[in-house]
Backbone:
């Protein structure tokens, strides 16, 4: 909760200007009403916004942008608020634009295999709307029941199937965007390539810094005829990590390739009863999808590779119900953590696949260094880790230790050639880690491109891309502890 | 050839500054030496450059950029010069940076499946260098024997396999770039996603306007165990076009899906003896690759779909030699055109797949309107057309008619929801068509992003993105003919 009070005079001025241009009940300024918007999925950070707006159409979005530009008010766009990096954290003197009322599926074109939807449409609602044509929208973040396509565009969301089917950027064809200048631009096209600069790719994953999306054209893919999943057990995590590399090296691209370590398995099993091997040090879930023949062949090949990579036990789902049960454990790993630990901190980093074993060993060492447990669940196929650091916020110092543990994991990811985020974005949470990931020249280039879209720098400012000042402060913070920058992070 | 003479004083000044910072024989300023650089694959446009530079390493690239920035000299980067849209067309008072000497394969990592190469390395040389590991670099433009990876990055090149394996943007992980400020930045990473703005995607296809690439990290993929290709005949092009849609609608993503109309087939067959059906109005080539079982199943499914879509004859390659022969006809379509027509103009547009039949009919009508023949060869699977307009430059007015015919095809592409380029880029050739494709707001956004990378606007200026002035002139050109802009282009 914010300690600094909102300037009520300013609030009334901006609210009045917004109310003059918007229908009734589209502008919330009473703290009672704006309280639900004070955080997103990264609930450790909270800030009551000055005002929340709820536009119902593109013209209302433009009206809000015009008011904010004229009055120099910073803007934070917000989908379902399920983001895990604080990208939708409000600003004390800012306006939140909620896409909650922009929730219409405009058109499904089964022939062209596209759907045009407003940004507030839920991820899963798209697949539900095209199920009748045997089509679905591929990216499936864990939050897909709740999260919106606008938020997916902002964060370039992935999911357990993104190894085979790609991230949001690979599944969105076009966006309509309201700019801070109060104009509408369209980025992308239904064609495979587009002339001009690929601003669609820049926009996807830009965390609300470049414009407000008002419409999204997504690609739909045919639902595979069938799917089966293998659960393979390993005696140690390093062997499991190497097995992932072996599957990929064999030229197989599984529809899903997930790994869970013993702690995750033991956390989940009593809760979900997925049928997991609780004696294994790690399990792999490897899915094949396609026609019955394709699936049978791929399952057979994967089984062979996993066995020779050292799997101690292998189970293959024998029915759709069993397949869903195998997945339910993985999908419920985060809620399960809540049952055994008062608090948990879900990290998100990406590493080259071949470094899996090294990073897992590193995280094990960090558990001792920081005196906290960490369970590992991850999209192994694309090297996207989701370490869950368990802590108790009521124990003095544990939250800080958890944060330092998380930063150390990210530093290790960068050290082995990976990145500080896989699919959760930078937001507020990892803005300091961006100073570790990038040099000043790259960060300046990011800011220059942001300025090309947003001259007054009002769109979700101070998120995602650190300013030189911020990186200098971050560096100083470390230097003042008597060491060089980052030298106080554990090295491996 | 340029009618305007180069200012020799200026040339000597710039050449001297360059020679002071570069090794001997890296700076060409004598017209005898610079003549080979006066055009690229779009040979109808020619311009002798003021100076050509041949850097051998990154430091020399930076030195050239520093001199050009200090002396305000525009720069045109150049790979093998195989580009078809004039992207490497020199500038009268500009410097060409040739990547010919930046031709080292730095490292192949078979385990990570990546290769790090300098920009002047030929596309096919990458695959040759990793053949020993059973890996290859997937994008295969027709010019792959000659064209360079730097040029592929500039144009976001595709090829006959890009439907399944993606364009350059999907196969490049990282680029090192020398900026106009004389700095080195790295865009992208080896991870699936990267934090910050996706400037890698913006850079790929940016036609040399944002920086000079000095190193490229590409993704390698395993060579499929086997492949087979179907040749299917159709009685009319519309049925053939619809069959393409049916294959895709059946959920099949062929490794290649190419279409040739009767004129292309008859042009090619006497020359290549590919075994094509010269009685068909159109033929489709549909390739399956993968394991033997996968290929057998996909060939069987595709055969079924093609038959029920109206194929009159179907032949399946029975050996690798036959498969190569089927492809050789397609790959030699352009040289074959040279045998039956003094000149030809290869267009490149992209349309939604479902509009194939409509656009083919439109092009047929245009043949009558413009009094020129057009043979159609295209990447049907991804809707990327390559109409070959045949003409004789020695007949007065034919070149102009061919250009107008090409512009009309592109206008039709835009009208049906497609784009003015598939994989050849905008360059010089299509800069006016960009005014048809985009509104001023989008073009201004492109220019703003260009300016973020290139404040002095020296990198390949006046290519790819038209200025407001240029679009105004283009509009006026059409208006002065007594009609609204573009109204003098044939409409369908």
Residues:
């Amino acid at each position: 909760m914010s300690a600094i009070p909102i300037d009520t005079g300013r609030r009334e001025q901006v609210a009045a200007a917004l109310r003059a241009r918007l229908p009734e009940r589209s502008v919330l300024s009473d703290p009672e009403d704006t309280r639900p918007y004070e955080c997103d999925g990264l609930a450790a950070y909270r800030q009551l916004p000055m005002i929340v707006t709820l536009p119902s159409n593109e013209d209302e979005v433009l009206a809000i942008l015009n008011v904010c530009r004229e009055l120099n008010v910073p803007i934070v766009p917000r989908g379902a608020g399920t983001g895990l990096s604080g990208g939708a954290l409000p600003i004390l003197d800012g306006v939140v634009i909620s896409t909650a009322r922009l929730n219409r599926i405009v058109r499904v074109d089964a022939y062209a295999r596209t759907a045009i939807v407003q940004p507030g449409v839920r991820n899963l609602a798209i697949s539900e709307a095209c199920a009748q044509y045997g089509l679905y929208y591929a990216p499936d973040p864990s939050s897909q029941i709740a999260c919106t396509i606008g938020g997916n565009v902002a964060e370039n969301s992935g999911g357990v199937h993104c190894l085979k089917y790609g991230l949001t950027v690979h599944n969105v064809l076009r966006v309509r965007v309201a700019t801070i200048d109060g104009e509408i631009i369209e980025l992308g096209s239904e064609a495979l390539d587009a002339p001009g600069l690929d601003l669609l790719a820049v926009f996807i994953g830009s965390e609300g810094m470049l414009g407000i999306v008002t419409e999204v054209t997504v690609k739909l893919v045919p639902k595979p005829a069938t799917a089966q999943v293998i659960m393979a057990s390993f005696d140690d995590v390093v062997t499991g990590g190497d097995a992932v590399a072996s599957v990929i090296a064999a030229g197989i691209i599984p529809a899903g390739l997930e790994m869970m370590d013993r702690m995750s398995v033991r956390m989940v099993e009593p809760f979900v009863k997925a049928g997991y091997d609780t004696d294994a040090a790690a399990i792999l879930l490897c899915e094949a999808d396609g026609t019955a023949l394709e699936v049978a062949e791929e399952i057979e090949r994967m089984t062979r590779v996993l066995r020779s990579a050292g799997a101690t036990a292998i189970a293959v789902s024998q029915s759709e119900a069993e397949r869903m049960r195998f997945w339910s454990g993985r999908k419920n790993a985060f809620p399960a953590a809540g049952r055994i630990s008062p608090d948990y901190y879900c990290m998100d980093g990406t590493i080259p696949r071949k470094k899996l074993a090294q990073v897992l060993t590193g995280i094990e060492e960090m558990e001792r260094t920081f005196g906290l447990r960490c369970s590992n669940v991850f999209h192994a196929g694309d090297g996207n880790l989701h370490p869950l650091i368990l802590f108790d916020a009521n124990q003095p110092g544990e939250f800080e230790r958890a944060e330092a543990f998380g930063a150390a994991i990210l530093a290790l990811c960068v050290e082995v050639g990976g990145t500080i985020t896989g699919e959760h974005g930078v937001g507020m949470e990892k803005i300091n880690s961006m100073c570790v990931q990038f040099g000043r020249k790259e960060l300046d280039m990011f800011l220059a491109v942001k300025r090309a879209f947003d001259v007054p720098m009002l769109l979700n400012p101070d998120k995602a891309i650190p300013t030189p000042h911020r990186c200098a402060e971050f560096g100083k913070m470390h230097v003042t502890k008597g060491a060089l920058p980052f030298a106080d992070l554990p090295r491996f």
Residues 478-492 of chain A have pLDDT under 50 and may be disordered.
